[in-house]
Design goal:
The chain is mainly alpha-helical. The protein is built from 20 helices and two strands. A two-stranded antiparallel sheet has the order 1-2. Helix 2 packs parallel to helix 10 and helix 10 runs antiparallel to helix 15. The longest helix is centred in the N-terminal third of the chain and has 37 residues. The radius of gyration is 23 Å and the shape is globular.
Length: 479
């Protein structure tokens, strides 16, 4: 009997390869899907400017995500299981891409609602899959589950972030400028662009023809279909990694699952403290994808330049996702999170003082590179941090993650469309500082709970020094 148990719990080379195959399949599936959605979303203000319908559809998407985060992730995952939930929700994204062929209120709004309902369960299923597989494999291999989960998210986001490369190659090629576009004057740029930008003030932009829109929509619709198809055909069901053994949501009704998601926030100090940084993740992505591209790219140098600059941004983001995962293993979370916050603050403050010009557009590439580096940290490490500090509560935790990140997107779109960009950017500076303090509070509390506080705060044998031992509250009472 003991021999049988040992055999069942062994971890072979084939198991190792299959595990990483699943990570890669999920990475490719999401990369194809978001090559379609993210690039189409980034162009909404240019492709569908009439009555602001393009930007409002994005606001509706994230408003719906906020609602779906409250009850759909745990419910759908319980009914469909993790793999099928990912597949079904990804196919729901194709409606939004298809609506671009006939972009009216009656087509875009329902498609936005459907997409928003699908997003939260899809992302929760992905995070649950990687976290559960890492926990399960870590126990069998006798290695740190935290380190394994961090690697999974690093590899996933390294692949995922390449959506900007492939999509913007398509965008730059299809939206090549026509002969009837003229460059704005320096006075127009100073008055309407950069931190002085406001949506109602307008800006220069090369005209986009319907044939170009149809070609873009056709290419992106094909990408959106390939993504879930890959996951359906090649991803192992999570049952192989202990999905049926998870007792987190067994036997609960839909109402109980909703209450579990809500109570996770109200009863968990870590969740409350890390929420501002989660909101920041949505704010910084929404600001860069909408406000930065409109004020510092489309306005001064034209919509045709978005593709080239975002290629650089996305390449930096993808490479940094991998590099920072490697760095974090050696120096820990705190130095990496601190660096990301500093990079964001530097870019925001410099842009507040700088006016873009056509002759100095090279600096826009530099700002995009720096922002891509920091975004890589937020996208990979906040996800991984959730998987580590909320082990056993992945579904309600990641539902909260998508809820608060989506709120950040929604706030970003609404504020960015209604106030002067300079005001919005100062608000971002204040919120980032507040968010970072909340994150540091979580690290300090975790250090107190475990009886030590390390500037590295990661499980590694490579840097045993630089650890400051602190008495736990229990030890202090005993003393």
């Amino acid at each position: 009997f003991s021999v049988m148990v040992l055999f069942q719990n062994s971890w072979s080379r084939g198991d190792e390869l299959r595990m990483w195959k699943n990570v890669i399949v999920i990475g490719f599936g999401f990369m194809f899907l978001f090559t379609a959605f993210q690039n189409m979303a980034a162009l909404q203000s240019s492709l569908n400017p009439s009555e602001g319908i393009g930007v409002y559809t994005l606001a509706i998407v994230y408003a719906t995500i906020i609602l779906s985060c409250l009850f759909l992730p745990t419910l759908l995952i319980k009914i469909l299981k993790v793999k099928l939930a990912m597949v079904v929700c990804q196919f729901m994204y194709t409606l939004y891409i298809g609506a671009q062929f006939y972009p009216k209120w009656g087509t875009l709004i329902p498609a936005s609602v459907v997409l928003g309902l699908a997003a939260a369960p899809m992302w929760s299923a992905k995070c649950t899959y990687l976290s559960q597989m890492g926990t399960y494999a870590g126990k069998l291999k006798g290695v740190s589950s935290e380190a394994l989960i961090t690697k999974f998210f690093g590899v996933f986001f390294c692949m995922f972030q390449t959506w900007g490369i492939w999509g913007n190659i398509v965008t730059a090629t299809v939206l090549a400028p026509k002969d009837d576009w003229s460059e704005p004057t320096a006075e127009e740029i100073a008055d309407k662009c950069g931190s002085s930008f406001k949506v109602t003030a307008g800006g220069s932009s090369a005209p986009v023809e319907k044939s170009q829109v149809y070609l873009l929509a056709g290419i992106y619709l094909a990408f959106a279909v390939i993504g879930p198809t890959l996951i359906f055909l090649f991803l192992d069901p999570l049952q192989k990694y202990g999905e049926d053994e998870r007792t987190e949501q067994k036997g609960k009704s839909g109402l109980q699952l909703l209450l579990a998601t809500l109570s996770h926030f109200s009863s968990n100090k870590y969740q409350m403290l890390i929420t501002p940084l989660t909101v920041w993740s949505g704010l910084e992505q929404g600001w860069f994808g909408a406000s930065f591209t409109a004020a510092f790219i489309t306005c001064p140098i034209g919509v045709h330049s978005i593709g080239y600059i975002l290629i650089v941004y996305a390449t930096t983001d993808a490479v940094s996702s991998f590099v920072f995962g490697w760095i974090l293993k050696r120096v820990g979370r705190i130095p990496v999170f601190t660096l990301a916050a500093i990079l964001n603050l530097v870019v925001l403050i410099v842009l507040l003082l700088w006016t873009p010009t056509i002759s100095h557009q090279g600096w826009i590439y530099v700002f995009a590179i720096v922002w891509g580096m920091s975004d890589a940290v937020w996208q990979t490490q906040i996800n991984a941090f959730y998987g580590i500090i909320f082990t056993g509560k992945e579904e309600p935790a990641f539902s909260n993650y998508r809820l608060w990140e989506s709120l950040g997107f929604l706030i970003s779109y609404l504020i960015g469309n209604n106030v002067l960009l300079r005001v919005f950017m100062w608000l971002l500076v204040v919120w980032l500082v507040f968010s970072y303090l909340g994150y540091m509070a979580v690290e300090w509390m975790e250090g107190r709970r475990t009886g030590k506080f390390s500037v590295y705060l990661c499980q590694t044998d490579e840097i045993p020094s630089a650890t400051l031992e602190l008495e736990s509250p229990q030890a202090e009472e005993e003393k």
